[in-house]
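Cast an eye over this sequence plus tokens and walk me through the fold:

***
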Amino acid sequence: MAMAQIRVAQGDADGALYLLDEAERQLVSAFFPDVRPIPALMARVWIAQGRLSDALGWVRERARPLAINLATCAVLCVPLPVELHIVSASVFALLGALQFATGFRRRRPAWHRAAGRLVVICGLLVGLMGLWMTLFYPRPAGSGELLFALRLLFGSAMIVSLVLGFGAIRRGDVKRHRAWMARGYAIGLGAGTQMLTGMAGAFLISAPTELSVAFLMGAGWVINLAVAEWAIRRPRYGSRAFARDDVRFRAG
């Protein structure tokens, strides 16, 4: 598809149509929505060529008036929750990673505290907007009751983890603060791991079902939490490094 777009940019519409036709024949259905369907790209090339009758035929064949994706329509009509979710998730992921860098944290404790407050705010927005979209947006095709419950469970767990982590540092409990923040961060990064589990599912399962989609999505959160728990329970988490950080926190 990328090569086809390059051919379009070069003015080779026939070459682009050939590549898109080949891509459509080799396309394998996956667990993620096809936001740029190949026939739609072909219709755009037809329009650029002036072949309006071919493009109109595609519209009549595929774009049924009642075949509206309600989930997509809801996002377009009420985009603010999605926009807040994406922006806050980006800040949460980038700044959150620096919060766990021991050397950076010790060299710049004031920056760590200021950035940490922003990380908590962004993380809470990620969780709250995720819950809002789960409860009030129409469910996408292929997502059943189990996935709905998992989204509510892990979204709530992320919010609770961040609140407990913030409360712990306010009491001066560095060890519990870091543990709860690690759990909240792990849940927040679940979407990245879900891309990998979804890709694995696309190779292993030919026809995705509601159960398999929920299993693969849930596996992303579970894998991240398992890694976080392993890191938390390593002996180093209770070592002198925490004692030094605790002394610095109380001195600051």
Summary: The CA atoms of residues 1 and 20 lie 6 Å apart. The radius of gyration is 23 Å. Residues 109-136 form the longest helix (28 residues). Residues 28-35, 64-68 have pLDDT under 50 and may be disordered.
